[in-house]
Design goal:
It is a single chain. The chain has helices at about 1-30, 75-85, and strands spanning about 30-45, 50-55, 60-70, 85-95, 100-105. The chain starts with a helix and ends with a strand. The chain folds into 2 domains: about 1-30; about 30-105, Nucleic acid-binding proteins (OB fold (Dihydrolipoamide Acetyltransferase, E2P)), CATH 2.40.50. With about 110 residues, it is α+β, with helices and mostly antiparallel strands. About 15% of the residues are buried. Strands 3-2-1-4-5 form a 5-stranded antiparallel sheet. A hairpin with a 5-residue loop joins strand 4 and strand 5.
Length: about 110
């Protein structure tokens, strides 16, 4: 009985601390995403993206910097999305210099 009286409050404190930490991480850091149609793709090679520009639903253009390959998304594939006016979603992170760095691309 005494162990239960101690264990439950300790578990509640730990749970609250984890929820607060998760909330702070979500607000302070982490990635953002935007969905739009492909406007321009600059390729670094046949399989790597140097930069990607998309236009969101409000008409704002977003230019992202690529850092390598993204599973299933070659420059050619992204150009197909642009030609067919199919939307893509770009998950990105803003660097200290203000560049938008691609983390992931999805259909």
């Amino acid at each position: 009985m005494i162990k239960t009286r101690i264990l439950i409050p300790v578990l509640l404190v730990v749970a609250v601390a984890l929820l607060i930490a998760f909330g702070i991480l979500t607000v302070v850091g982490g990635s953002e995403s935007v969905e739009g149609q492909v406007i321009n793709v600059e390729q670094a090679s046949l399989t790597t993206i140097a930069s990607l520009t998309i236009e969101d639903a409000s008409g704002k253009e977003w230019t992202f910097q690529g850092t390598g390959t993204f599973s299933g998304f070659t420059p050619t594939h992204l150009n197909e999305h642009g030609a067919l006016r199919e939307k893509v979603t770009v998950e990105y992170e803003k660097t200290d210099s203000g560049d938008l760095l691609i983390l992931e691309i999805s259909d």
